[in-house]
Amino acid sequence: MKRLLRNIGWLLSGRGVNAVLSLVYLAIATRTLGLDGFGYFALIVALGQTVTGIANFQTWQFVVRWGAGEDGPAEATGFAIALDILSIVLGTVLAAALCWSAQFWLPLPPDLLWLAFGFCMVSLLAIRTTPTGLLRLRFEYGRATAAEAVQPIIRALGAILAAIFMPTVTGFILAWAAAEVCVAAALWFAAGRTERIDFSQISLFRLPREHAGAWKFVWSTNLTGSLNVGSKQVLILLVGAIGGEAFAGGFRVASQLGQALVSLAQTVSKAIYPELVHARDNAHDMARRMANIALVGGALAVLVAIFLGRPGLVLIAGPEFRVVYWAMVILAIAGAIELVGASLESLLVSAGRAGTAFVMRAVPTIIGLSLLQVAMDWNGLKGAAFTVLGASALSVIGFWVAVISLSQITITVEPKTDSRD
């Protein structure tokens, strides 16, 4: 538990740097581009992150799961890199399809479609979950935090340069693309100094031959990651398709400020997963304690959003973004719920129930997306935020029920083992 809290401390320090610099580049981008221009920017970024999120396998989990054995992580790393290459190939096809069809369903001007495709390709080439997994496997959270800090620093500097020399959507997208490349390079460099990477081990078939459930785990975690993207980036795209670029920009701001807790939940999940893998006997107790801590932190964050959110929006994004206040508050509540559920979801995945976690995430997400247009017709951006809140609540309830079932199974199995002994 002490090591877990120390690792979360490293990750949170990185998130703290990211949060402060995020406010800097968000303020510069919104005030330079305005509501409509920021909407175009938000749609292009969402396209890139959608493609990467759907095509990208959660390879860091494979490295942690199969690299912790006596033989070391070489084979698991080779499998992860092979999956990264597959992600780039599949993602290129998906990016081409989405960017070509965007003219029919997204409010993006034709001259920005090639820019969107270019950003998608840069995002794919900058996939970095494998080096992240190597660093987490060795509990090198300090190095990982230092490497990941490159991204917000480059984004903030790039936003300043864009505002001065190229105050357009293109200028800010170039700044974001540069940050993606730099953070990927920093993480690979840090991972290479921690663990020797044997490129001769790259193979899609070697590890699955030795681990029967490998491909099932791969697809379950990939689909879960894709759903996490669907609940955020695809949602921004659909909000833009239904309400236009101004709605997309407003929802992006509300989401980035209100759902900061979702990023925190992902941070907790990434820190606790390796610990749950290594300490199976105490996994339930560890997850329960983390959920209790998260409940208190989430409640405090929601109160901050309610009482300081409106002046914060005006200060950061400008007066025209004041209208997204209630959407931001609703998304903050959803983020608090996700924060509580993060350790429960990680517990399920670490116990080999990635498929169960996927189902518990998939069904509410699909319901939320299917109701999006009805919700927006009812109450605009607030309606869209309510779909996120409902999906998060249903998912976390599902995680809780599944964890209780898992706990009961463990309890019933242990006495049988004792009696045989």
From TrEMBL:
InterPro entries documented for this protein: Poly_Biosynth_Transport, Polysacc_synth
Domain of life: Bacteria
Membrane topology summary: Multi-pass membrane protein
Pfam families: Polysacc_synt
Keyword line: Cell membrane, Membrane, Transmembrane, Transmembrane helix
Location of the protein in the cell: Cell membrane
Segments passing through the bilayer: 12-32, 38-57, 78-106, 112-137, 293-317, 323-342, 354-372, 384-406
Official protein name in the record: Lipopolysaccharide biosynthesis protein
Organism field: Qipengyuania profundimaris
